[in-house]
Amino acid sequence: MALKKNTLAISFLMMALCGVSMAxxxxxxxxxxxxxxxxxxxxxxxxxxxxxVGDTLxxxxxxxxxxxxxxxxxxxxxxxxxxxxxTYTNGxxxxxxxxxxxxxxxxxxxxxxxxxxxxxxxxxxATSNLSPARPPTQSSLSGxxxxxxSVPSILLSWAxxxxxxxxxxxxxx
Length: 173
Known about the structure:
five-stranded mixed beta sheet; 31% helix
């Protein structure tokens, strides 16, 4: 009996950990990356994603020609990078989305933001990840490098945990 209780406790712990560790990683612009060449409509790209607290946004770019500046809404709307909240220049920068709300990013090189190299990321609280996901569009289906976890992933984690609990419980069936 003690073995069953321990097995059940471990199984529930595993299921809880699976639920906590399901943050998504998004590559800004998918395979095109962070660019001003007009290949990516970043407004459309972001609109087709469900960003949650704990997700990571990765900017991949040539740092000889681009950078990433996190700015205020006013800086975003006016393409003003003179007083950034944060500046990223490595060429492969990962930004953890640590709270809900809007995160605004622009390229600080002259003319790039005006050419469309800017992105508004709307982050919802982590508890909202049980809401229905937006239906996929053609552009989101083509972005295979983005990972977004939704309700089926969470249910699959719980089902997997329940299956492990069943097998570890010693039941003959």
